[in-house]
Specification:
Layout: E1 2-7, H1 13-22, E2 26-29, H2 31-38, H3 59-73, H4 77-85, E3 92-97, H5 100-108, E4 112-117, H6 120-130, H7 141-155, E5 166-169, H8 174-188
Parallel strand pairs: 1-3, 1-4, 2-3, 4-5
Helix pairs in contact: 2-4
Length: 191
């Protein structure tokens, strides 16, 4: 089984994916292949499209290299790489799905897609709290909105809400989010 988790920056995609991981799914992010290629950490793959010059995987670099790979190898290249990285797993949850081609690739593999959303203020607060190295270029709310708009222009993430199989509004507590995810897992894997 393959589950894709899509949503805007800091909506809670990784947290949702981690809840699936707790239930035995192998978790991988769409950015993992990009990070692996940029840092030349490619031993988990049976194939790689190409190896770029080694560099630090900042958010801007991930976006730039991801766009390049998608233009050259197809919009589903990151899904193919993510699935390849976890090819020995029975169930995979892919976090950080961002484009229509990626959603369609997951559905084409018989998978399901979950859209996670939260308002911009909540997402910015979470981004500041998580202190991820890839986010260090985002210094204030204006930077966050600029990056959010840039991703929306590139991927039209908001439109993916319409073609997702499940919707989670993630503006409450962690326990409330866990309860919503558990409901989806029960729906997908009946006892």
């Amino acid at each position: 089984m393959i589950i894709g988790v899509v949503g805007k920056i800091a909506a809670g995609k990784t947290t949702v994916a981690k809840f699936f991981e707790e239930r035995g799914f192998c978790r991988v992010s769409c950015s993992d292949p990009l990070i692996d290629l940029l840092t030349h950490n490619v031993s988990d793959y049976s194939w790689i499209p190409e190896l770029p010059e080694k560099s630090e995987p900042t958010r801007d670099r991930l976006i730039e290299f991801g766009k390049y790979l998608k233009d050259k190898y197809g919009g589903d290249v990151l899904i193919r790489l993510a699935v390849d990285k976890k090819r020995y797993c029975e169930n995979i949850v892919i976090d950080g799905v961002r484009s229509r081609e990626e959603v369609e690739a997951i559905k084409g593999l018989g998978g399901e897609v979950i859209y996670v959303e939260a308002d911009p203020e909540t997402r910015f607060r979470r981004l500041v709290e998580r202190k991820a190295s890839k986010d260090k270029v985002i210094r204030n709310f204006r930077d966050f909105l600029r990056m959010d708009e840039e991703e929306e222009r590139l991927y039209h993430t908001t439109e993916l809400r319409k073609i997702a199989d499940y919707l989670i509004v993630n503006e409450g507590t962690l326990d409330e989010l866990r309860e919503k995810v558990e409901g989806i897992i029960e729906d997908l894997i009946p006892s």
